[in-house]
Amino acid sequence: MEFQSTYYENESLWEVRLGSTKILEYVYGAAEDPNPSFRLVKTKGGHTITLYRPWDHPWHPGMFFSWKYINGLNFWESMYHGKKNVAVTESFVPMEGNIGFEQKLSYLTYEGKKLLKENRVVRIEHGDEGYLVHWQGSFVPEDGPVTLDRTENTKESPWGGYAGLSCRLNRNFLGPVITTDLGVYAADDAFSKSFKWCDYSGKLDGYIEEQWAGICLIDHPSNLRHPSPKLIYDYKDMQFLSAGFLFNEPYVLNIGETLQLNYTFYVHDGQVQEEKLKKIWKTISG
């Protein structure tokens, strides 16, 4: 079966179906969301990967990209923890001939000042027993240098370090198996290690016989600071996977410079095997 995409401009919604199953919903412009996101991500088998606006962190809108701080202003929790700083869509254009889109964004402060521009390109393609979401973001400062920062990871804030491409997983992914290019880990042991690729797989509810699904975050070798630390959270009320580009230190983006980040998500049914991920990595990395 081939992917079919539909764009509902009036609803700021782009979706992808595989046969009769809706597997992706990407939304932008909702007043309650500081950042655009894939609010729905399902496997080819119809199993839900993402959790959208969970009660504990309503600023987690599924699978999304967000800086934590830009010039000291919070764009992650935004109005939930302070002022309404948001990523605003300037244009959204579905691809012709491929399944994907190009989106132009401006990062606006609560006072309406543009700090940063982003050109986002997302493309979907079939993968081995799953599918791939290729995600590229190119960032340019608007009218002066910008400092991209995070909450520092310390003894007082051991959960800190997050900012960037992230996925809030459905709650059934409690107790995952983390499969990486450096081996297989429990979530706590994998936290903040620098992986080229990192898969988060868990058991599915509703079945007598054991069923699995998961999502793998792949860090392209062209990225600055490659491979960055990967942040893997498995709390009783939160399952989360994120690329920690800023984990170790902030990044200053000066006028005339462009920061480009490339990642791929591999969405799959089943408990993935290392050899399969190695094959996907080899194809993506060239």
Present the secondary structure layout:
Elements: E1 3-8, E2 13-18, E3 21-27, E4 37-41, E5 63-66, E6 69-70, E7 73-74, E8 86-94, E9 99-108, E10 114-127, E11 130-141, E12 146-149, E13 164-168, E14 177-180, E15 183-185, H1 187-190, E16 197-203, E17 212-219, E18 230-235, E19 238-243, E20 251-253, E21 259-269, H2 274-285
Antiparallel strand pairs: 1-2, 2-3, 3-4, 4-5, 5-13, 6-7, 6-12, 8-9, 9-10, 10-11, 11-21, 12-20, 13-19, 14-15, 14-16, 16-17, 17-21, 18-19
Describe what you observe in this structure:
The protein is mainly beta and 286 residues long. It has a single domain (3-285), classed as Beta-galactosidase, Chain A, domain 5. Helices cover 6% and strands 47% of the residues. The protein is built from 2 helices and 21 strands. Strands 8-9-10-11-21-17-16-14-15 form a 9-stranded antiparallel sheet. The longest helix has 12 residues, at 274-285. The mean pLDDT is 96.
Provide a short characterization of the protein structure.
This protein is mainly beta and 286 residues long.
The shape is globular
Main structural class: mainly beta
Order of helices and strands: EEEEEEEEEEEEEEEHEEEEEEH
* Sheet of most strands: 9 strands, antiparallel
Number of domains: 1
Radius of gyration: 18 Å
Task: Please tell me the overall pLDDT.
Answer: 96
Unreliably modeled segments: none
Q: Quote the CATH topology.
A: Beta-galactosidase, Chain A, domain 5
Identify the CATH class: Mainly Beta
Please give the CATH architecture: Distorted Sandwich
Number of beta-strand segments: 21
User: DSSP helix count?
Assistant: 2
> How large a portion of the residues is in β-strands, by DSSP E?
over 45%
Percentage of residues in helical conformation: under 10%
Distance between the termini: 27 Å
The neighbouring-strand order within the major sheet is 8-9-10-11-21-17-16-14-15
